[in-house]
């Protein structure tokens, strides 16, 4: 099974690289208080990650439209996460054999020109790489390292502490 997943991801990466070359974005640095729409991408592997997402929401303007995507490693039915208008949970089941989005919500998310995209994932997942890389968000923010090539602004730190990362967002984007 691992071989098949790796094969799917290798094909998906080739398709992804072609799409990245065609991507046209309007990159605009935005301070936290000027954000009118934002998206947050995180992984659900740790139970306190949802708590960190809520902390990040607190530093964003109250009237901002916020969309959140949580990535579930494995199958959705093994977890008790429920999607709503703000929170959407995705897994590998939402991607076709070549790891391209088959869920319409993911395609809408990628094409939405959010003012800011916040990446709160420290571990590599191809699905999150694809979504953050192809997103047309105007300003992509996160931690250096794993998804750095997709980001416009990143915090250089060895820490995997989400609270520290959020405090740095608040400090540098104020």
Task: Describe the structure concisely for a colleague.
This protein is α/β, with parallel strands linked by helices and 174 residues long.
Descriptive account of the structure:
The chain is α/β, with parallel strands linked by helices and 174 residues long. It has a single domain (2-172), classed as Rossmann fold (3-Layer(aba) Sandwich). The protein is built from five helices and six strands; from the N terminus they run H-E-H-E-E-H-E-H-E-E-H. The chain has helices at 2-22, 49-59, 104-111, 126-134, 162-172, and strands spanning 37-43, 65-71, 87-90, 116-120, 140-143, 153-155. Strands 3-2-1-4-5-6 form a six-stranded parallel β-sheet, sandwiched between helices. Strand 1, helix 2 and strand 2 form a beta-alpha-beta unit. Helix 1 (2-22) packs parallel to helix 4 (126-134) and helix 2 packs parallel to helix 5. The chain is globular.
**CATH class wording:** Alpha Beta
The count of strands amounts to: 6
Mean pLDDT: 89
Q: Distance N terminus to C terminus?
A: 46 Å
Structural class: alpha/beta
Q: Major sheet: size, sense and barrel closure?
A: 6 strands, parallel
- Major β-sheet strand ordering: 3-2-1-4-5-6
The CATH topology name reads: Rossmann fold
Question: Structurally, how many domains make up the residues?
Answer: 1
Helix share bin: 25-40%
What's the gyration radius in Å?
Answer: 15 Å
Query: Architecture in CATH?
Result: 3-Layer(aba) Sandwich
SSE layout:
Elements: H1 2-22, E1 37-43, H2 49-59, E2 65-71, E3 87-90, H3 104-111, E4 116-120, H4 126-134, E5 140-143, E6 153-155, H5 162-172
Helix pairs in contact: 1-4, 2-5
